[in-house]
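Lab manual, section 2.4: Encoding a predicted structure.

Procedure: take the sequence of the chain (349 residues), apply the prediction step described in section 2.3, and record the output as structure tokens. A sample record is shown.
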Amino acid sequence: MNPTKKINVGGVLVGGGEKVKIQSMCTTRTSDVESTVRQIETLTIAGCDIIRVSVLDENDAEAITAIKERISIPLVADIHFSYKLAVSAIEHGCDKVRINPGNIGSESAVKIVADCIRAHKIPVRVGANTGSIEKEFLQKYGKNEISLVESALKNVAWLEKYGVNDIVVSVKASDVPLTVKAYTLLSERTDYPLHIGVTEAGTEQTAIVKSSVALGALLLNGIGDTLRVSITDDPIKEIYAAKRILRAVGADSEFVDVISCPTCGRCLWNSMELAKKVTEYTEKFSKKLKIAVMGCVVNGPGEAKDCDIGIAGAEDYCVIFKNGQIIRRVSADCAEREFFKEIDAIIND
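Recorded output:
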């Protein structure tokens, strides 16, 4: 992948080797300022770096001003069909605007948006997807990675023609192989930062699998500067999934990594339940730690010797160990409580 350009989105740097930024999108009506702000605050606490809101009409565009006054992360206005709404959203203070190549309109419409973008000194995302590939490219190439990328780059060229150079590009598909092919091709054709994601990925479990495979493949190949994990559910689940993907590919090391074995017939205690509790409890901490919850004392400490702390169990007792060395033996009925004490001590150290 070519090194990407670094751009500033409302004080958050994207591209140019910066940490991959997590995005999500509000499910509230933007004109409902209270609900939108409340959702953004929740997503911010969870780890969202940049938030996007839909702009369906002038009321939504006007609400951006009030929303911006009450949030602490950059806000992106999502525009379809109307260049006039793009202009209004920019004038009301959005930090970035997303336009869709397939429906924003003619070159003259893009020029009007470009002039406004340049006047307000904000970046833009050209967000193409398989549902809005421009007709000329569909007819020439069919629905594939080439038509998807060409559709995006045509609008990038128009923006450049009218003096806009702070651009983010995305080429999303709901098909995982096509998503990977499109972004791989795009990374070879441009040095603008890439917003990666699988569009219309489905409900929670399916969406996480699709996004993990596609985004994981891209990130491991150095492709992707910001991402969204699209899930048909509460958007906070998008943030948690994105964080886990970034951790899995090594793009984020400041977290508590909880490992646990799948268990077998040697496991004589409820290690599965404790593993879930420890994972949920430590999710919120930004500290580089590795914790193990292992099924049996036979293999547990040895297999998890690289962990800062761990626990393994037998039928009526558990052992707590650090770096593979047993430090305590505790009765099964108090093992959970004692293990959480040890976890807290390490986290607060």
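Check your result against the sample. The mean pLDDT is 93.
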